[in-house]
Specification:
The structure is a single chain. The protein is α/β, with parallel strands linked by helices. The protein is built from 6 helices and 13 strands. The chain has helices spanning 3-14, 30-44, 56-64, 102-110, 142-155, 194-202; strands at residues 23-26, 50-53, 78-83, 87-88, 94-95, 112-120, 133-137, 162-165, 182-187, 207-210, 212-213, 219-223, 228-232. The strands form 3 sheets. Strands 2-1-3-6-12-13 form a 6-stranded mixed sheet. Strands 8-9-7-10 form a 4-stranded antiparallel sheet. It has a 3-stranded antiparallel sheet with strand order 4-5-11, with helices on one face. α1 packs across α2 and α2 (30-44) runs parallel beside α3 (56-64). It is globular and about 50 Å long. The structure holds ribulose-5-phosphate. Residues 27-32, 83-86, 96-102, 105 line the site of ribulose-5-phosphate. Ribulose-5-phosphate binds at residues 27-32, 83-86, 96-102, 105.
Length: 233
């Protein structure tokens, strides 16, 4: 099965949640990109929506697709956010941030009346953590912050993680997020207690945000070879 096909099935099914007049959070990543492209086709057919992008890359893709954009500062509500995920665990707890957009993704998902996560079947897991957890940090004192982040995994019962500073593959320099921050990728295999880990990470000075999205998504649309399954909680 092509994962492109599965992602397309999920993205297409998510369009059923979009209604005329909505303000939409537009996610980032390859699955969200497909949603943006399909949404653009609906807009060309007359659908009236406004999009709030979760990254500069998505802003560019949405503009290219002809979707009118709204600055988050001018939004009095966000009706729906559709975004991808790196892992979808029990109760739709997510790991996000593989693309480095987790801060804006979380601000927008948290401000939305509904978050729908779209993914192919490979993203469903029984425990979170096989995908290294992205943690967005301020560059100031980053090596101290990295040691404190490392300690959080021990305190919360997970295995000692491998913590690495994400690199920009082209330049070999640290990857810089849209907000001007660094990313630590924390690989520990299994995150023993996601809620406790999330709370402890937030308490580390220098941590701007982390990629654990707990209690945010209420709908998960999982694409497969022949269609998409819609899960709600
Ligand atoms: C970006 C994200 C993406 O949603 C996540 O990485 C999934 O991407 P893809 O759909 O390409 O697998 O969190 O920060």
């Amino acid at each position: 099965m092509s994962s492109e096909t599965a992602k397309t099935h999920a993205a297409r099914a998510a369009l059923n949640y979009v209604k005329d007049g909505m303000v939409l959070g537009l996610g980032s990543g390859s699955t969200a990109d497909i949603f943006t492209e399909l949404l653009g086709l609906r807009v060309a057919d007359g659908l009236k929506v406004q999009g709030i992008p979760t990254s500069q890359r998505t802003a560019d893709a949405a503009a290219e697709a002809g979707i009118p954009l709204l600055s988050i500062e001018h939004a009095d509500r966000i009706d729906l956010t559709v975004d991808g995920a790196d892992e979808i665990g029990p109760d739709f707890a997510l790991i996000k941030g593989g693309g480095g957009c987790l801060l804006r993704e979380k601000i927008i998902a948290n401000a939305s009346d509904l978050m729908v996560v779209i993914a192919d079947e490979s993203k469903i897991v029984s425990t979170l953590g096989a995908f290294a957890l992205p943690v967005e940090i301020d560059p100031f004192g980053f090596s101290i912050t990295a040691r404190k982040v490392f300690d959080v995994f021990g305190i919360t019962g997970s295995a000692r993680p491998a913590v690495s500073l994400r690199e920009d593959k082209r330049s070999g320099k640290p990857f810089i997020t849209d907000g001007g921050h660094y990313i630590l990728d924390c690989a520990c295999g299994v995150i023993a207690d996601p809620a406790k880990t999330a709370a402890q990470l937030c308490a580390v000075p220098g941590v701007v945000e982390h990629g654990l999205f707990i209690d945010l998504a209420r709908v998960a649309i999982i694409g497969g070879e022949h269609g998409a399954e819609i899960l709600e909680r």
